[in-house]
């Protein structure tokens, strides 16, 4: 059972109250697909690819969570950008992740930030995930 199934949430006018069982997963606010797409445009190293835009827009509501790195499928990342993120003193922006169909998540945006978090020995990373994929 994945950690996201441990969340009990009650939707109240766009906000959530929840119990995060022993994991660091607290979603306090929902985000629209457009807000997540705007986040992607602001922090991505590339322009928005049409298939990424389509995936984001196909999920109307998103939440920001602490996603365990063990729940993310590995992806290739350029070492120079990974090192740059790893050396940052401030927290890196949230990644955008969706389920890959096998109870793991894939980063649509944030492969470099994910690798940097692994390099720094972190256990989790801030991530936007579709609300329909946390139940």
Strand residue content: 25-35%
CATH architecture: Alpha-Beta Complex
Q: How many strand units?
A: 7
Q: Order of strands in the sheet with the most strands?
A: 3-4-7-5-6
Largest sheet: 5 strands, mixed
Structural class: alpha+beta
Helical coverage, percent range: 25-40%
User: For the CA atoms, what is the radius of gyration?
Assistant: 14 Å
Q: How many separate helices? A: 4
Whole-number mean pLDDT: 78
- What's the number of structural domains? 1
- The CATH class, by name, is Alpha Beta
The SSE string, one letter per element, is: EEEHHEHEEHE
Low-confidence stretches: 1-24
Q: Note the gap between the termini.
A: 11 Å
Task: Give an overview of the whole structure.
A hairpin with a 5-residue loop joins β5 (95-99) and β6. The protein contains 4 helices and 7 strands. α3 crosses α4 (111-119). By secondary structure, it is an alpha+beta fold. The radius of gyration is 14 Å and the shape is globular.
In short:
By secondary structure, the protein is α+β, with helices and mostly antiparallel strands. The chain has helices at residues 33-43, 50-57, 79-86, 111-119; strands at residues 7-12, 15-20, 30-32, 61-68, 95-99, 105-109, 124-130. The strands form two sheets. A five-stranded mixed beta sheet has the order 3-4-7-5-6.
Keywords:
single chain; 135 residues; alpha+beta; Conserved hypothetical protein from pyrococcus furiosus pfu- 392566-001, ParB domain; five-stranded mixed beta sheet; two-stranded antiparallel ribbon; 4 helices; disordered N terminus
Helix and strand arrangement:
Elements lengths: L6 E6 L2 E6 L9 E3 H11 L6 H8 L3 E8 L10 H8 L8 E5 L5 E5 L1 H9 L4 E7 L5
Parallel strand pairs: 5-7
Antiparallel strand pairs: 1-2, 3-4, 4-7, 5-6
Helix pairs in contact: 3-4
């Amino acid at each position: 059972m994945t950690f996201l199934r441990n969340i009990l949430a009650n939707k109240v006018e766009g906000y959530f109250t929840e119990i995060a069982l022993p994991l660091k997963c607290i979603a306090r606010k929902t985000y629209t697909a457009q807000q997540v797409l705007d986040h992607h445009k602001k922090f991505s190293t590339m322009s928005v690819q049409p298939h990424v835009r389509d995936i984001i827009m196909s999920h109307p509501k998103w939440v920001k969570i602490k996603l365990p790195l063990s729940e993310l499928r590995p992806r290739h990342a350029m070492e120079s950008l990974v090192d740059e993120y790893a050396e940052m003193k401030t927290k890196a922006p949230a990644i955008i992740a969706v389920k890959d169909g096998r109870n793991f998540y894939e980063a649509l945006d944030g492969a470099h930030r994910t690798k940097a978090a692994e390099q720094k020995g972190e256990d989790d990373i801030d991530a936007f995930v579709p609300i329909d994929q946390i139940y």
